[in-house]
Amino acid sequence: MYTAESTVRAAQPVGNHSYEEFKELTREFHGCAAPGLLIGGYMVEKARARLPEGTLFEVFVETAKCLPDAVQLLTLCTYGNGRIRLAETGRFALALYDKYTGQGWRVFIDPLKLRQWPEIETWLLKKKSKQEQDSDRLLEEIGLAGEELFGIQSVGISERFLEKSSSGPIAPCPGCGEPYTAVDGPICRGCLGQTPY
Questions:
Q1: What is the mean pLDDT of the chain?
Q2: How far apart are alpha carbons 62 and 92 in whole angstroms?
Q3: Of all helices (H) and strands (E), which one includes residue 86?
Q4: pTM exceeding the 0.90 threshold for the entire prediction
Q5: 41-71 pLDDT, tens per residue?
Q6: What Å distances lie between residue 188 and 9, 138, 176, 177, 193, CA to CA?
Q7: CATH number of 4-165: 3.90.1740.10, 3.30.1330.130, 1.20.1250.20, 3.30.470.10?
């Protein structure tokens, strides 16, 4: 639990980085030392420590907020190489798993452990607006709590998620002429009006 005496305790490292080094990495990558990314760093390391050395792993994140950035900072998994996948459950959790067997570890914020860290709890449960939160204390609590915030469980990824699907043939769109994934239909999704602009 966070107390005045906690400040004499040092922040826990995040993998091979000191907490201060990891905060700086998050600022450079994410634009700020985001609490979710800092917490996510500890989550990644807790799961990775349980995987056998040399395991080629992939990751499911259960929210698109901050966790993917922690994964990309600390591992070789990215959205671009297809080794980060989103299973939007609305929970702040992730699973690292063997790419071939699907066996891995899911790390989540344990609600019972969260109670010991009042500023983290306030942030996560949005008990106060961002402006009302004590951001210095929040970042301090994250470093002090480290991996103590989490529960961990063994998981097996369903086979249907282990199969890699091909995007299929690429062809010029009859509507706009740009190359597109032909399995999407007779014209590209852009010509179907599925663009953000």
A1: 92
A2: 6
A3: strand 84-86
A4: no
A5: 999 999 999 999 999 999 999 999 999 999 9
A6: 57, 46, 8, 9, 9
A7: 3.30.1330.130
